[in-house]
Amino acid sequence: MNLEPIDPETALEMYLDSREREVTEATLNSHRSRLQYFTAWCYDNEIENLNELTGRDIHRYRLWRRNDGDLTAPSEKTQMDTIRVFIRWLESIDGVPVDLFTKVQSPTLSDGENVRDVRVDSEEADAILTELATFEYAGTIHVVLLLLWRTMMRRSSVRALDVEDYHPDEQYLAVTNRPDTGTRLKNGDNGERYVALREQTCAVLDDWIERQRPNVTDDFGRNPLISTAQGRIHVNTIQTYAYATTRPCFWGEGCPHDRDLDDCDGTKTKNQAHVCPSSKGPHAVRRGGITHNLKEGRPEKFVSDRADVSPDILEKHYDRRTEHEKMEQRREYL
Predict the structure, then answer these.
(1) pLDDT value of residue 174
(2) Longest C-alpha distance within the chain, in Å?
């Protein structure tokens, strides 16, 4: 087989271009971030043509990434699994030797080792939403956090909503996959669904649209439900809002880290909120909402469909009920 020379940087850009319509923007950014470490390592080790890449090189990179990045086993696995996907793609364009991807090794994790338990609990969510309803009612942050908690949507799904997707009379949102106009859902067409809303949520959305929503369109002429002066809200902005509002000092709990709030970097701007050790991202809000619904006794099928997550993934990554809690809920049915 004749390989065609390709340098690491060109390979990375070609790979990202090829995946652009297949994955969400968040996934694409994650792959870019992980693979930039690999391309930088290649240049530092004088590998300027990936035709010359070997299994031993990849092993050396793995050890370097593990030690230099001080990675946990789950983080190392994520990094190397992305490398494997990248190398397999390179094989398809004659960029590396055949079957090189089979030599990419990553850690084997024990049961539960790759399951994170960072989540916003119901008491925190109530405090956050009460604070927002009091001081920032029907503002952008209030609407975003309300949807993340009540609907259990991913941030990419919240971003994808248009004004026309909101049906106030029937009280539901139509989550729609529109990859050709900039908002692909994580699960593509399979992620499309109707999400029922409670009356209080609709009241906030009505006030948002009528009084505070910037009346703008996005780059494709669509009317984003969650808009800013610049157009459709960015997923990173949603992440910033989650970090900012989940700091305990935001919702009146005080600082659990004994910091002087006037000197704390995490309180200076919303963009710095992530430096607070207690702040949490939008996925923690989603995970907490899912756990809350399960603890409230709502059927797993209901939660699975509403949150767009398979029953297996729901049980492994989101269900934080104890076995005793599950037993008591079964008792109620009996």
Answers:
(1) 97
(2) 67
Report the CATH fold assignment for 8-103: DNA polymerase; domain 1 (1.10.150)
Q: Tokens for 73, please give them.
A: 């086993």
Q: Is the dihedral of CA 36, 37, 41, 44 positive or negative?
A: positive
Q: What is the pLDDT of residue 124?
A: 92
Cα 287 from Cα 277, distance rounded (Å): 18
What is the C-alpha to C-alpha distance for residues 229 and 237, in angstroms, rounded to an integer? 13
At the topology level, CATH places domain 122-285 in: hpI Integrase; Chain A (1.10.443)
Mean pLDDT (10-residue bins), the chain, 334 residues: 88 92 80 91 91 93 81 82 92 92 78 60 93 96 97 94 97 95 90 95 98 96 96 92 91 77 77 83 90 85 89 75 74 70
pLDDT recorded at residue 109 = 61
Q: How far apart are CA 98 and CA 326, in angstroms?
A: 49
Asked if 177 and 192 touch (Cβ cutoff 8 Å), the reply is: yes
- Rounded CA-CA distance 222/328 in Å is 47
Helix (H, G, I), strand (E, B), or coil: what is residue 256?
coil
d(CA 292, CA 25): 28
The neighbour count for residue 199, using CB atoms within 10 Å, is 7
Domain segments of the chain as ranges: 8-103, 122-285
Q: Could you give the CA distance from residue 144 to residue 234 in angstroms, rounded to a whole number?
A: 12
On whether the pTM is more than 0.70, the answer is: no
Q: Give dist(CA 326, CA 330) in Å, integer.
A: 6
State which amino acid sits at residue 151: T
Residue 173 forms beta bridges with which residues? 166, 195
d(CA 58, CA 75): 17
